[in-house]
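2 proteins. here.
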Amino acid sequence: MFRPLISLLATVAATLAIGWIVDRSLQRLAAREPDAPLWAQLRRCRVPLQLVVASALLLAAQPIWRALHPHRDEGPHHLVLLVLLASLGWLTARVVAAVLDALLSRYEGRVDDPARVQRVHTQISMLRRVADAVIVVVTVAVMLLTFSAMRTVGAGLLASAGIIGIVAGIAAQSTLGNFFAGLQIAFGDTVRIGDTVVVDGQQGTVEEITLSYLVVRLWDYRRLIVPVSYFVNKPFENWTRRDPGLLAAVLLHLDHSTPVDDLRATLRAHLDRHPLWDGAEWALQVTDTTPSTIVVRATMTARTPDDAAQLRFDIREQLIAYLRDEHPRALPRLRTTD
């Protein structure tokens, strides 16, 4: 009567002890090698590891209990087997995720190029989703094969696999297209997480890339959900594919009497005081003229698209205020007399 309880308590004690030992070992490795993020990432695998250990110990004790009780029901044994398979799948997914996250963290610490970091981030995120999908499919398939009914119909399923594959391919054509489009985006380096893109006239930042869709965060914090096949089949603007910085431009329509040199000096003075200017490039040029105005373009660089937009707003406001206060005749006027 007490043997099942003793066996269960021994299994729980062994599971907790193994989990504690593994966690302490990973802590020591992480403290000994602080530059190796893998050990800290692997600590997230403690719960699935303990489930694997507990279910494996219970299965190992099954032959003994079967010998003592030959007419015992096989239901609990099958349930524990299913828990073991599910736990192994969970543990495998956690280990793969930890390895990929550690690789990304190590890469981010060694590379200073934001564009390359974004590209690797996108690729690793896609690899993680593909790995999770494969692990789930394989785990569920193996769990189903433990049922005798599934093994019985296995031969029939294999015989009709060709027809089923054709039908499934036709039915899931759109899904498969998005899947391969997602892989093409991840490894073709056309768009990455963190890129600033323009889709159907709407500017936003790529926030997430999955196997089927892509999430773009717009300037007003709305999320635009776009199928990944869109970025393969249609043109779009990627403002940060090569360089995360941008050239901001301000256009002003002014009178012909505008003191361009003074305006250029004022622009430089404002840029020197502005925290969003990266100090790389700037210019002020007269790009066009009409019978009543001239077109003055002020350009400046910033580190990110958001900084470029804010810098453009601030500089436009400051230049107009300077002309209004110092040179009001430089602002465009409607001429009614000669």
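next one coming up
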Amino acid sequence: MVDFKVSRDSKTSDFPHYWETCVGSCHAYTALREDYRQQLRKAHDELGFRYVRFHGLFDDDMSICIENFGFDGKSQGIQYNFVNLDNIVDFLLSIGMKPFFELGFMPTCLASGKETFGAYHGNITMPKDDNLWTGLIRRFVEHLLDRYGKEEVESWFFEVWNEPNLSAFFTGTQDDYFHLYEMTVRTLKAADPKVRVGGPATSFNSWIPDLINFCKKNEVPLDFISTHQYPTDDPLWKSGKNVDEFFKENKGQEINYRRGILKEMVVEAKQQAGDLPLYYTEWNSSARSDDFIHDEPYTATFVAKTLADNDGIVEGYSFWTFTDIFEEQSQRPGVFHGGFGLQTTQGIEKPSYRIYQIYHQLGEQRLPVESSDPDSTAELLAVRKGDDLQLLAYNVNVPMGTISEQDIDIDLGASAGDMQCALQRIDDDHANPKKQWQIMGSPEYPTAAQIEELRAASSLRTEQLTAHDGHISLTLPTQASAFITVPKYFRV
């Protein structure tokens, strides 16, 4: 039994919804798809996301910067075309969202090499001529300012490249990236000094002190720090080795990590960032795009703990991604194939979607919680919303860790008496559409009726729960979450 204690007389602390600042998605061109748009609108309306970030803004499929050739094969010069860009931005603004622009990859006509990333062939090389790159950036930002106005564009974010410390995403060196960052930010700031620009957009919380030192030494503007993290980063993070060297040495080995590792990384990254705002522009329960834990209640419970842990440390924490409409290795077939998304390709809400839905309902004042066993896999988040007390209990450990079901008792104070509460669960038997899909026989191409049945299986169901004499007793299965609302708790 784990005992928790909450008091209505405790001093609360601010609990801003930092996780709603941004959410990730696949490459920019997918934002022209109607199914992508339907799912993003739903995620904005139901989960509160305000910005969206995607790869491949300058990829050839966006036609932003292309080179035309005549019938004789001779170049007719470089052409800029912002039609697809405007289409995407117009849509985002129409649903109440904004872009968190990741500036990359390299248009083929500007590229110094032929190396590419992903099924959509984003070029990952430096520009063959600095003036060509700065010319693109200048035309790009001038177009945005002209079309959307200074005040609007200044409310957006501009992040230079994606994971330049990984050879899969960038063929250059750290010095190359810093040069790319410098000429990009100077070009953007020349058009509008108030445009927000940051980096290094690295994996594994890397290069943060290095970029800060470079910018200070060379008087280069840096408005925010951005980086990425996944719990599987832990061994590399501790090793201090080069990314490619580490994975070459550990190829094929299971990567273990500690419970709560993401908070450890966030704390260190915040110390390194200093006074600069810190935005995580990618994170999830696993860095693999085919990891089945993404589809299961485990990831929901992992999200529950992680968002509670990182409260008050970061300014933004962008989950990767809001949908399985995702084409890095081509669009994967089937329904529950382990994709990063909060929703399947068909728009079925995974358990992780539902935990974000619960977090969106939370108030913005957090209460302290006393626990009889701080080392337990069961934890409790307590939040005040108006006169109501909201309690989110979760029982989670890393996939290779030891865990068992936990009986918990929540002491609301002797004066609370008997109270009727509302309970919503996420576990193997609740808000778990994958289980229903397996019962169906795991159809690869579900019918419209089957999709609706799976969405119904995903929904949060409300049960009645009685607090007897100021105590709530509950059993938490493994890798499970329980959301309890105690109405009018603060009305005395």
